[in-house]
Specification:
By secondary structure, the chain is α/β, with parallel strands linked by helices. The protein is built from 14 helices and 18 strands. Helix 9 runs antiparallel to helix 10 and helix 9 crosses helix 13.
Length: about 500
């Protein structure tokens, strides 16, 4: 098996000897891109398949947790760039969807301090998707990773006798490797091989998302006065304005030169799971007041929507697959990561974070186990990840409830009730360090035939809520609770 290292220290490319493991990664999202650079750093051989003609670096913003950037210590240039592009000086302001301000503009660090957290170690940052993706793409290009574009994988397989995994494209091409990483999203065809719930289904929710130049605010002086103002003494620091309403929430980011707005809503019929499918602002205006009760959306938010230029607004459908502990093929040669393994609601603030954690964990487990123990390494990685991700997924529903059914009287007393929960068990985690500290102990539980949900906490410390005992759950149970006015039941343990 591979050697262990002091992963607290910088271990750049070349620190690990070649493992001889040929890795094929399907998909160039954050999970796939992270897996590619981390697998190379850990000594594996990497190729990638991407169904599109290039890597899509478009988009708006998302939240990246602290646990997802721990591995940057091994990539000094990425760490420096990430620090440069991060909105570490951002401000937050909270409104009711009607436009009433409930929490005045406040630096994120001050909001953290009021929530009893250390402002010097934030749980994460809002990030611009294009800037983060371009940073990863540059690193992949510098490493010379071979990416085969225009390769849509429609079938996965494995040959246990030959100890190979296979990905087959829609043109009948076969790509083989020692291990195939399915990082191709919630609709991955690997699900047929892995088992469980094969088809992802709509959550009944979607997100309107738009990013455009702040120059468009010049067309509406009132909207420019409201959304053009930024934070700080000189009004030049990014500000995120959150709007919370019954069955909906929205974010509007203003940063130098750019406006982004995102709104959660019930499906309208025109949504797609696509970063290229757009709708026009008239459709949004015709639907945004539906389902929010007697009080309509604030006129100022409607003005912002109306200023959005053509072919800019995405209507991104949110799909869901119930948590399932099997993320790999029977022979352990095909393994899912990111949305292919676990889908997240945007309210969780965890989709990008857990995708990156997956990639770091898997690359590490493969290095520790070595070429002769790939199936064991894959299964050990999954044991590290499944309960943690299932908990983070459920937290997403709890956060959605918090944002869409806000108790404003309680918020006046405790402002953190108007923002998603980001508990320490999520953001303090270091997936690489956790893998090196616990690989052999967890691998032994597999060899001993101990079920994944019966692993003793004294044997392998949990990376999920302390004291939590896994109980299977599904979206139907959660939605039944929500529809009957019951709070989302997270389960036992300390989720704070």
């Amino acid at each position: 098996m591979g050697s262990t290292y002091n992963v607290d220290d910088c271990q750049p490319v070349g620190s690990y000897p070649p493992t001889g493991i040929d890795v094929l990664i399907v998909g160039t999202g954050l999970a796939g891109l992270t897996a590619s650079i981390e697998c190379i750093r850990k000594g594996h051989n990497v190729r990638m398949l991407e169904r599109m003609g290039d890597i899509n670096t478009a988009g708006d913003m998302y939240f990246m947790g602290h646990s997802a950037i721990q591995f940057f210590r091994h990539w000094p240039s990425m760490a420096a760039e990430y620090s440069r592009i991060s909105m570490s000086n951002a401000w937050l302001q909270t409104f009711k969807h009607s436009g009433e301000c409930t929490i005045p503009p406040m630096k994120v660090s001050d909001r953290l301090r009021r929530a009893g957290m250390d402002p010097n170690t934030p749980p994460g940052f809002f990030q611009m998707r294009p800037l983060v993706y371009k940073m990863f793409v540059r690193q992949v290009e510098e490493l010379g990773v071979k990416i085969h574009f225009g390769k849509k994988v429609v079938e996965y397989g494995e040959d246990e006798q030959r100890q190979k995994a296979v990905a087959v494209t829609d043109q009948g091409e076969r790509f083989e490797a020692d291990v195939v990483i399915a990082a191709d999203g919630v609709g991955s065809k690997s699900q047929k091989l892995v088992g469980g719930e094969v088809r992802a289904r709509s959550s009944g929710r979607a997100m309107w998302r738009a990013a455009f130049s702040s120059e468009h605010l010049d067309k509406d002086p009132e909207a420019k006065e409201f959304f053009g103002r930024m934070g700080g003494e000189n009004e030049d620091e990014p500000i995120v304005r959150t709007f919370l309403g019954p069955g909906t929430y929205a974010l509007a980011l203003t940063r130098p030169g750019t406006i982004i707005w995102i709104m959660n809503h019930d499906v309208t019929g025109s949504e797609e799971e696509s970063w290229t499918h757009t709708v026009e602002y008239s459709e949004v205006l015709a639907n945004m007041d539906k389902g929010v009760g007697p009080t309509p959306w604030a006129p100022i938010m409607k003005s912002l929507v109306a200023l959005t230029p053509p072919k800019t607004i995405l209507n991104f459908e949110l799909f869901w697959r119930n948590p399932q502990p099997s993320w790999c093929s029977p022979g352990g040669r095909v393994v899912q990561i990111g949305d292919a393994a676990h889908s997240f609601l945007p309210a969780s603030g965890n989709g990008a974070t857990q995708a990156i954690e997956d990639a770091v964990s898997l690359a590490s487990c493969l290095q520790i186990g070595g070429k002769e123990h790939i199936p064991l390494s894959v299964r050990t990685h999954i044991r590290f990840r499944f309960i943690r991700c299932a908990c983070a997924q459920k937290l997403g529903f709890s956060n959605a409830e918090l944002l869409q059914d806000t108790d404003w009287d309680e918020v006046k007393q405790d402002p953190k009730l108007a923002q998603p929960k980001l508990p320490g068990w999520i953001w303090r985690h270091d997936p690489e360090k956790y893998a090196y500290e616990n690989y052999h102990k967890m691998a032994e539980t597999i060899k001993a035939g101990i079920p994944f949900d019966k692993v003793d906490e004294d044997t392998v410390p949990p990376n999920y809520p302390p004291g939590y005992h896994y109980q299977p759950w599904n979206i139907d149970e959660v939605m039944e609770d929500v529809s009957n006015g019951r709070s989302v039941q997270l389960g036992d343990g300390d989720w704070s």
